[in-house]
Amino acid sequence: MWPFILILILSYLIGSFPTAILTGKMLRKMDIRNYGSGNAGATNVFRVLGWRAGVSVLLIDMFKGFVPVFWIAPRFAPQSDWIIYVQILAAVGAIAGHMWTLFAGFKGGKGVGTSAGVFLALATLPIAIALVSFVIVVALTRYVSLGSLLAAVIFIAVMALQKFVFHIDVPNVLFYLSVAVVLLIWIAHKSNIQRLISGSENKLSFGKSVEGE
């Protein structure tokens, strides 16, 4: 029992690393939560600080999800029959840590980057296709939020095709976690969806930051 509790706690603490907040303070001595959408995640960093800072935050957030699932879970619970469930536990801890970080009043990002890191370890092909779609959508539209939302849909669509059309062995627990995470990401982007519909969502600047600093 204790190894599972330890995995959950470690995964949560790793996921709680406040990447976006620290990036804002280091680069501009600013609290990212006071700018843009007010969210402490990669999407808002893209919007406020520009694409270079946004990519850096996204990669670190992915690392926060990848490490608990790929490295921590197998070492604390190496039994092959249970490993997928232990990895799911680590995934839940890391994503929860990112969205409700211990180090910022339990208010973090929207879970996109950390979820991508989790599924990079658990569902490599679907997340790779989703990431490519994210880059294409953002490059064409300059809406990071739209790229995140569509990438989430494409990810679960590829998972569904693997499981139900091509009959690839995708564990039920992994598929259901994927559906839950995608729904959570869409719910977390509710305000972005409203701004996209109204046409008021800010676009990514490939030059200076949106704030012009």
How does this structure look, described?
- 71% of the residues lie in helices and 0% in strands.
- It has ten helices and no strands.
- The protein has one domain.
- The protein is mainly α.
Helix and strand topology:
Layout: H1 2-15, H2 19-28, H3 42-49, H4 51-76, H5 83-99, H6 112-122, H7 124-141, H8 144-165, H9 172-188, H10 190-198
Amount of helix: over 70%
Instruction: Say how many strands there are.
Output: 0
Termini distance?
A: 50 Å
> Structural class, from helix and strand content?
mainly alpha
Please summarize the sheet with the most strands.
none
The proportion of residues in beta strands is under 5%
In angstroms, what is the radius of gyration? 17 Å
Q: What is the overall shape?
A: globular
Averaging pLDDT over every residue, what do you get? 92
Low-confidence stretches: none
List keywords for this structure.
71% helix, 0% strand, mainly alpha, 213 residues
Provide a quick synopsis of the model.
71% of the residues lie in helices and 0% in strands. The chain has 213 residues and is mostly helical. The termini are far apart.
